[in-house]
Amino acid sequence: MPVNRNALIRYRTIDNCLQNRFRKWTLDDLIEACSDALYEFEGIDKGVSRRSVQADIEMMRSDKLGYEAPIIVVDKKFYTYADKNYSITNIPLSHQDLKVLGEVSGLLKQFKGFSHFTDLTEMVSKLEDKIYAQKTQSLPVVDFEKNDNLKGLEFIEGIRKTIVSKTVLCITYQSFKARQPNTFCFSPYLLKEYRNRWFVLGQSHQKNAPLLTLALDRFQSLTNDNTEVYRENEMINLSTYYSDVIGVTKSPGQRDVEVIFWMNHADAPYVITKPLHPTQKILSSDDAGIVFSMKVILNFELEREILGFGARMRIFGPRNLRKRIVGQLREALEFYG
User: Fold this and answer.
1) DSSP 8-state class, residue 86
2) Left (φ > 0), alpha (ψ -120 to 50) or beta: where does 28 sit?
3) Do 166 and 184 meet the contact criterion of CB atoms below 8 Å apart?
4) At residue 148, does pLDDT exceed 70?
5) Neighbours of 164 (CB within 10 A)
6) Could you tell me if 29 and 17 are in contact, meaning their C-beta atoms sit under 8 angstroms apart?
7) DSSP 3-state helix, strand, coil percentages of the chain (rounded to 5)?
8) Alpha-carbon span 212 to 219, nearest angstrom
9) In this structure, are strands 197-204 and 219-225 parallel, antiparallel, or unpaired?
10) Which CATH number fits domain 153-225: 3.30.450, 2.30.30, 2.60.40, 1.10.287?
């Protein structure tokens, strides 16, 4: 049976609430959560009626949508799942779902090969592999990189919407180095993925208004703030801001430098077939090995990339980078000493 978008948002919200077993959920709590979700995703501010949420719970309990959710009431007041591992997102796709996904896959394939849609190739492959595995009840034949325990993914859609609508966020954030979380206002500009971690680039409303790149897995809470005025991006070109960096760590005005490194012929193909950076090029080659160069900003991610090659890569310059790599290798050797 057809289900409208608002109902799906409510089902997902109720599901997320009932999976959180660190809190007891009354019907009023679920109504409030659904109302907040509809406002966040659809801008609907009239709230959700008690009857609607009660009907949603009954629909989730039924087999009409294939959920058959084991929703129970504890102490005649608190809603929860009888099975702590249950989620509506874990149920198999229905025949209708597979049909719709097949149509979507067919539509996306029409755009494969167009220069503006080069990123669709992996997306279509993932989608078709999911459809194949569900239809045949077999294991997927493509194993894409993923991290099921990654934190912060639930914030992506909310942040994307605030970027589009140019809305200020109120963030409670705690970096790995901070002892206590910090709450502040933030105007987001760009979502960025690096190695399966997600980041958001934007301007803080704190003193001196620094440009920050924040990791979504360090967010503790996120709400819209309509009392603050959104600060338009007038500092950087978002399309090129990360073009001179490996990873996401950089500051406005930071200049790139030429990094020169050497690898022997046995290991060089690993960076020839998968360059460390688009500016990478070969400077020279002899019987001993190959010398490469690239123009990037010096940061933590670059050092981690270099250290990952261990003894198979040698840094020639710049001198300060070489010195840091040597120091870290010596420190690592002492750990094994």
Assistant:
1) -
2) alpha
3) no
4) no
5) 9
6) yes
7) 40, 20, 40
8) 14
9) unpaired
10) 2.30.30
Mind giving me the DSSP string for 9-44? HHHHHHHHHHH-TTS-B-HHHHHHHHHHHHHHHH--
Can you name the residues that pair with 291 across neighbouring β-strands? 262, 284
Six-digit token string for 221:
């809470």
What number of H helices and E strands is found in the chain?
9, 11
CA pseudo-torsion sign 291, 296, 301, 303:
positive
What confidence tier does 29 reach under pLDDT thresholds 50, 70, 90?
Answer: very high
If you search the block for the tokens 């045949």, which residue do you land on?
136
Res. 114 pLDDT band, cuts 50 70 90: low
Contact (CB, 8 A) for 17 and 36: no
Residue 2: predicted pLDDT: 46
Q: Which of 200, 206, 199, 202 is nearest to 232 (CA)?
A: 202
pTM for the complete prediction? Answer: 0.66
Quick one: which of 205, 219, 206 has its CA closest to 175?
219
CATH level 2 (architecture), domain 5-90? Orthogonal Bundle (1.10)
